[in-house]
Queue: 4 jobs
Job 1
Amino acid sequence: MRKFSTKFLAIAAASTLGAGLGGCATIAPPSAVEVTRFHDAAGLAAGTQTAEQRTVFIASAPTLGTQNSGSDSAEMASFKRAVAAELAQLGYTESARADAAYIAQVSLDRFTTGEERRRRSPVSVGVGGSTGSYGSGVGLGIGINLGGNKSSVRLGTELAVMLKSVATSQTVWEGRANWDVARDSELAAPNANAPIIANALFSEFPGGNGETVKIRAD
């Protein structure tokens, strides 16, 4: 699995990934992965004593209307596998829903942007909020005019995960990551994209509570 270095860029800092690249044949590099996480430290600690307490079922999050682009597709399966692999690295064992101590609800949104990149609304509510940390915006697509130069078109991916305790029905950890790549990049394919964004999402787990960082690969 491709691993990220622990280089965290300030949220307001400009990315330097594309500096100095020229020539029409060059595929633009990917953006940094923007990651925001929240966690309930006591809730996470409560389920770490035995293997049975770290079983998890990977589920698609409930869809919001008809705009969620990844709910139960083959594309979504790539990202759920990537989430399962990251949780396994953290000591969680994937299981059937009936045997799970936790449910990991996965949301996916894949969207295209033009030369001017558009970002999601800022995070509004932390763990325990009635609408979730990201409000009703999780999973909503962005409408963009796709006219113009193909080289300026980017494919964006937003991956969000909520880890819920079955015993308490409480969310003990949740995070959201988003990045974009050139539409003609090999990283646009789900099986190449998913491991990278999932690895960034779970890097330095559980992450800074309420902190938004940008993570780039070397």
Note: The first strand starts at residue 8 and ends at 9.
Job 2
Amino acid sequence: MLTYFLIGALIGALTGVPIGPVNVAVIDTAYRHTLRRAIAVGFGGAIGDGLYAMLGILGMGPFLEDHPGVPPILYAASGLVLLVYGVLTARSKPLATVTEVTERASEPSAQMWSGFVLGFSLIILNPAAIVTWVVIVGSSMPEVSQTEGIAATIGVSCGSFVWFALVAYLANHGKKVLGGKAVWITRIVGLLLIAYALFSLGRAIYIWFF
């Protein structure tokens, strides 16, 4: 079980490296709100990753193979959601200092909950992640028992969370170092997210017509 947990943790961390909606949300939240809330966003995303990884482990692969029309629909839906979020992120403006001070003094549990919901929702609203996890699980863990699968899923969530927490810390540190210029961080990652969304839409079109 420990081996599958470690494999899952490694996969969870590595799959978090490419720019994606949760990475963007963590950076944006760390810059415009607080580190505590940014970490909560990462935790929500990590739980979502674990759930989708579990779907892959439990055998979504055969279903997708039997229904070839499903993956392009998932890619298209994800592309549209990520495109909207990327545009909103690229156009975001820094919050007023008084807003940040007020938020720091607000109820910590409210900050944590709102951040968790955001991170979890961004994964759930990215259904193409199911396809990604089916491919990853299918290639790295083709045949696992239920217990091994659960261990791997927990590992995926842990690995994802460690990565997102690191991103939150670095973004928060960058905000302090760069000051007002840090707004370009969220604008750049927003543009990268738009590019990723267009890639997902292009993949859907390619599968449909070619």
Note: The chain is about 85% helix and 0% strand.
Job 3
Amino acid sequence: MNPHCLAYTHPMNIADLRKSYEKAELSEDASQADPLAQFERWLKEAIASEVPEPNAMTLATVASNLRPSTRVVLIKGYDECGIVWYTNYDSQKGQELASNPFAALQFHWVELERVVRIEGRVEKVSDEESDAYFHSRPLDSRIGAWASPQSQVIEGRTVLVTNAAKYAAKFMLQPPRPPHWGGYRLVPNEWQFWQGRKSRLHDRLRYTQSGDQWLRERLAP
């Protein structure tokens, strides 16, 4: 351990920052037997409550060297097949998913004192799904998919601006979907739902797949 780490004093004592969670509860009787139905209920409540970016989720992947990494992406669809988002296949997350097709997602709705965690295998969505979503995006976003060599080192923002101008002139109002851009679907085999409670005695339910059924269990917080 670096001895200098012990000598540093924070300008504010972040260890004393605390919050009492008292907004709601999550019981077995009140929760859905199917985790997708429970997720849909909570997502709709987050949207109705107008929490900031209720569709934002943290995506965790693991590289071939076993080092994990996280980033925030936006959910674009969900059904019994899984959770869908779109990105650059050549990005860091794309490369990590190519070598290790398992990942974890997390939604954190701070204002509702809720967390949803989802784990499972990741696959690419069909070209038809990727095409349909890509062409529904605003024009600037479609050009941006061509302009940004995501996760690569660039000399400055001028590179992005220049690329955007080049592809806007090339494709005009009809940019096709780049071959390096499309959707992923995480197929869940485990869900966790966390509801903050008073005295740190939080509610935490885990759903694990057992054949065609889901086993619901309460975990200690």
Note: The longest helix spans residues 157-171.
Job 4
Amino acid sequence: MSVRELLAAALMLAGVGTAFLAALGVLRMPDVLTRLSATSKASTLAKMCVFFALSIAFDDLGVATRALAAVAFVFLTAPLAAHAIGRAAFALGVPLFPATKVNEMPGPQEGPAADPDP
């Protein structure tokens, strides 16, 4: 095996490992917001490792360009999607983990418009 093949295999293994950790995060985390944190971060890293392994394994400029474009697309969309899902879950009243100490986001009844004394 060449060094390029070993590097591609190592990146692919790292991607599979972080994807597995993201799946474990979905199973083990207690509420929606912590699950979103685990899945968005770990799955973004897993996709990045897999796409970089793909661009290294195939010695083609077209494949490398598409893989880098896919990495850029994932980096732009994954945080936005996680944020939108988290805001929607919070707006729908999905309960937080009972041991949550700080909630800095005002709910529908706690916002500035709900305050009778300005």
Note: The chain has one domain: 3-95.
